[in-house]
């Protein structure tokens, strides 16, 4: 078996491997502030965060500011929990992932001075916000 055959085999094996999904955190090891998130592709989202932070274009302004202040070596990218797909099922794991993320957000409370996350608006708060925006448009 030659090198090109082995390379082709490795690529095919990689493509067939399911993505690792779950909950991750970006932890500032200097001040211990954390950002918690969830993704269907953990390694992909972690790479995206690193890329955006290095580029200076991360959407989370507080996280980006600390990255610039402390440097990239002051941050750890960690997987908190993995969601294992059921064999052979083509099901959508977004809802299960959202529940898992909510559990970690409740546990770690990464808001304000201890974290980079913003609290998600509850259903009632979102409805009030949408109603206020509609009445302002008239």
Description of the structure:
The protein is built from five helices and three strands, in the order H-E-E-H-H-E-H-H. With 138 residues, the protein is an alpha+beta fold. Strand 1 (21-28) and strand 2 (34-39) form a beta hairpin. It starts with a helix and ends with a helix. The relative contact order is 0.17. The model has no long low-confidence stretch (mean pLDDT 87).
Whole-number tally of structural domains: 1
Which CATH-level-2 architecture? 3-Layer(aba) Sandwich
Low-pLDDT stretches are: none
Cα shape:
globular
- What is the CATH third-level topology name? GIY-YIG endonuclease
Query: Could you state the order of secondary-structure elements as H and E?
Result: HEEHHEHH
Euclidean distance between termini CA atoms: 71 Å
- Helical content stands at 40-55%
Strand ordering within the main sheet:
2-1-3
CATH class, please? Alpha Beta
Key structural traits:
138 residues, alpha+beta, GIY-YIG endonuclease, 3-stranded antiparallel β-sheet, 5 helices, 17% strand
Quick structural gist:
By secondary structure, the chain is α+β, with helices and mostly antiparallel strands.
Please give the structural blueprint.
Blueprint lengths: L2 H14 L4 E8 L5 E6 L2 H14 L5 H10 L4 E9 L10 H15 L14 H15 L1
Antiparallel strand pairs: 1-2, 1-3
């Amino acid at each position: 078996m030659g090198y090109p055959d082995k390379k082709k085999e490795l690529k095919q094996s990689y493509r067939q491997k399911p993505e690792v999904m779950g909950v991750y955190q970006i932890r500032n090891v200097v001040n211990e502030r954390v950002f918690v998130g969830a993704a269907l592709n953990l390694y992909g989202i972690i790479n995206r965060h690193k890329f955006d932070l290095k580029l200076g274009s991360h959407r989370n302004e507080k996280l980006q500011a600390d990255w610039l202040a402390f440097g990239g070596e002051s941050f750890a990218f960690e997987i908190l929990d993995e969601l294992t797909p059921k064999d052979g099922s083509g099901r959508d794991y977004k809802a299960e992932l959202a529940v898992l993320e909510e559990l970690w957000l409740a546990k770690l409370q990464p808001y304000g001075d201890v974290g980079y996350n913003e609290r998600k608006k509850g259903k009632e708060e979102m409805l009030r916000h949408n109603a206020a925006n509609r009445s302002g448009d008239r």
